[in-house]
Amino acid sequence: MSITPLSPKARKLVLTVHVVSSVGWLGIALVTLVLVVTARVTTDPELGRAAFLVLDLFDATLTVPVGLAALLSGLVLSVTTHWGLVRHWWVATKLVLTVVVFVVPLVVRAPLIDQAVASTANAGADPGPAAAELMTPGVMALLILTVATVLSVYKPWGKTPRGRRLAVARAQAARSARAVRA
Q1: pLDDT digits (tens, 9 = 90+) for 25-44
Q2: Spatial distance between the Cα atoms of 170 and 139, rounded to a whole number of angstroms
Q3: Are the beta carbons of 128 and 40 closer than 8 angstroms?
Q4: What gap in Å lies between CA 17 and CA 149, rounded to an integer?
Q5: Structural domain includes residue 3
Q6: Residue 2 maps to a domain
Q7: Phi-psi region of 84 (alpha: psi -120 to 50; beta: other; left: phi over 0)
Q8: Domain housing 161
Q9: Burial class (CB in 10 A: 0-12, 13-18, 19+), 120
């Protein structure tokens, strides 16, 4: 399957959306982790409840759209540029990490946030185990998004077997085209 490459202006636009949404997503992960830590360590029940309410607001309004923008713009860039979706290990790895960090919060974190908000509805109430359980997805999201950023900068590991096969086929086609012209 061959997809038409983007024009330079369109590629720059999609790349800008990807960088801004990816960095924004990383920032959201950091803020949500700060909110979870604040809610866990504070001795002020009102501050703890407020932290969970803001966390719920962030989760409900920012995490999904920003994560989806990063995921979709990354997919567009990968299939319309020479990097390809599964031609280079760093792109394939980044795709897997992005899907994991997008899906896991929806499945794991959202119900825990709901539990924490509900359990702190009464003044002075203990947020229960949900507060402690929110630490793991918060730390993991921050680490995974940081690793994805590092992969984008360093582009390690070279081509996948599919990427090597495509490169060989392209080189053979170029040699054949030169031979026909000669």
Answers
A1: 999 999 999 999 999 999 89
A2: 42
A3: no
A4: 14
A5: no
A6: no
A7: left
A8: 8-181
A9: buried
Low-confidence ranges of the chain (pLDDT < 50): 1
The amino acid at residue 171 is A
Nearest C-alpha neighbor of 103 from the set 67, 78, 72? 67
Percent of the chain with pLDDT over 90: 74
Total of domains in the chain? 1
Query: In angstroms, rounded to a whole number, what is the distance separating the alpha carbons of residues 182 and 179?
Result: 5
> What's the DSSP call for residue 120?
T
Residue 1 lies in a domain: no
How many angstroms separate the CA atoms of 143 and 171, rounded? 38
Pair of tokens at residue 9 = 């202006």
DSSP per residue, 19-39:
HHHHHHHHHHHHHHHHHHHHH
CB 140 within 8 A of CB 106: no
Measured between alpha carbons, how far is residue 134 from residues 50, 78, 89, 117 in Å? 16, 32, 31, 12
| Residue 74 included in any domain | yes
User: What DSSP character marks residue 67?
Assistant: H
